[in-house]
Amino acid sequence: MKTSDIVAIQKKVGTTPDGFWGPKSITACQVYLRSLMPVPNPWPGTSQSELTDFYGKAGDESRLTNLNVEGLGLKYEGRAVKTVLCHGKVAESLHRVLAALAGTHPEILAKYAGCYNNRMMRGGSLPSLHARGAAIDLDPDPNDNHTSWPSVAVMPFDIMEAFAKEGWLSAGAFWGRDAMHFQATR
After folding, report:
1. Looking at residue 123, what is its pLDDT?
2. Which segments in the chain show pLDDT lower than 50?
3. Whole-angstrom Cα distance, residue 114 to residue 77?
4. Residue 146 phi, psi (nearest 5)
């Protein structure tokens, strides 16, 4: 992102608009996004026991649903996407976010990179939220797991706000990297 983009985010989250993304900006950003989340937050915490209690076992495809996304502009590798395979508990929430983004960021939805994928966390031994159908990736090339946000990754902040309004965590804002990743956890 450009320094002016970082300054704009800093102004929005109520911290010193100096273009330097450090601990104060990170904290202010996370506090701001949490303030947008519903109370109580409808999603579980991130412990494996909470995830299993809420979503069931990772890889349990009986809990998944095909979310109709026709007309929202999602594309995977340039091909139109008609449905997104996701957990039934996140389907309505995910549809609301995607419908909102269809009007504001069609270019991001045109770079959809997946939801359900029965796999472990990258570099880890625990199941990914993708293995429960409770995470989605958008625009991966400039926002991948090894690219820091917002200094290098370019995921627009208003996309993070849209997910936060549904209680979802944005990895870029909460982990400082992997800005393509959004998950239904608190």
Report:
1. 80
2. none
3. 10
4. -105, 10
